[in-house]
Amino acid sequence: MKTTNPGFVHDISNLERLRAGINDDESQSLRAAAQQFEAIFTQMLFKSMRQANEVFESDLMSSSNSKFFEQMHDEQMASELSSTGSLGLADLIVSQLGGEEDAQSPIPPSEQDFREAIKEAPLNLPFDTKGKQPDKAMVEKAADDALKIMQQAQPATFTAPLPPLKPQQNQRGFDSPQDFVNRMRPYAEKAAHAIGTEPSVLIAQAALETGWGKKVIKNAAGNSNNLFNIKADPRWSGNKVATNTLEFHNGIPVQQKAAFRSYDSYQDSFNDYVRFLNQNPRYSEALDQPADPVHFIRNLHKAGYATDPEYSNKVISVMDTVNRLME
């Protein structure tokens, strides 16, 4: 970690030296500018904490003069801290802007190191504060508050590696309706057996909802595997993804944003579909007479599964195609 002598924070010759050094050593100038930025950021932290503490100040101990010297004290402390790299922000800026291409990612200081840096930062103040020293408890509180803010703002390069995402299955796209039917058939047969209906109606419903698998809702990992476009209501505690959807209100299609459930696999999607129907009393009529797939999907539609007034007719039409592909 490189350090520089910050000097007096209000010495404008520092800026002149920074400007003059740009052509001499670009990397050193970048580091100096990064430290200036870190100092400004630290000053903002101190200023916010001072303002939060004003409500507890006594009129006898607080005046415009004392606030003036407190501000100069805080600015000098921020300059000293930035010169020692206590926060690590300058190192990060230099690394990301290419000033030190071969430098390793900066290692964040420990909490104890940070607190000690705050408490022990040398203050080269060129004025007489008449013996007034910052309260120790206030300084330690400032260190704690600043540390919390830095931890919350800490970029990903400062954190431990995230655990790898659980690999999702069935990421390969579908080549054709026949391919969709062939790959969905084992899942549909299992789910249809649990419901007591025909697998073709479930495949048809999934085909209509996803455009034969080509329009499955995407998430950050690539595929939500949500074949039936089941929304993530308050009862859902699993992964979810937000996207635009077309809903019908009084027969009029309206675009709106909604949260949908996200699964690790297509098998999970079929399993949750069965569970979703069984856990919702409004679908009891559809589940009471599931043997006839036409009656099943019409009762499902009637119970409010979809807002499209032609939903059940569309599923039945697709089911005719599915039955031919399953022969």
From TrEMBL:
GO biological process, one term: cell wall organization
Gene Ontology cellular component list: periplasmic space
An example molecular function term from Gene Ontology annotations: hydrolase activity, acting on glycosyl bonds
The keyword Secreted belongs to this UniProt entry's keyword annotation: no
Residue span, Mannosyl-glycoprotein endo-beta-N-acetylglucosamidase-like domain: 164-323
Subcellular location as annotated: Periplasm
Classification via Pfam families: Glucosaminidase, Rod-binding
Superkingdom of the source species: Bacteria
InterPro entries: Flagellar_prot_FlgJ_N, FlgJ, Glycosyl_Hydrolase_73, MGlyc_endo_b_GlcNAc-like_dom
Keyword terms, alphabetized: Bacterial flagellum biogenesis, Cell projection, Cell wall biogenesis/degradation, Cilium, Flagellum, Glycosidase, Hydrolase, Periplasm
Family: In the N-terminal section; belongs to the FlgJ family.
NCBIfam families: flagell_FlgJ
Known function: Flagellum-specific muramidase which hydrolyzes the peptidoglycan layer to assemble the rod structure in the periplasmic space.
Protein name (Swiss-Prot/TrEMBL): Peptidoglycan hydrolase FlgJ
Organism: Photobacterium chitinilyticum
Taxonomic path: Bacteria, Pseudomonadati, Pseudomonadota, Gammaproteobacteria, Vibrionales
Record gene name: flgJ
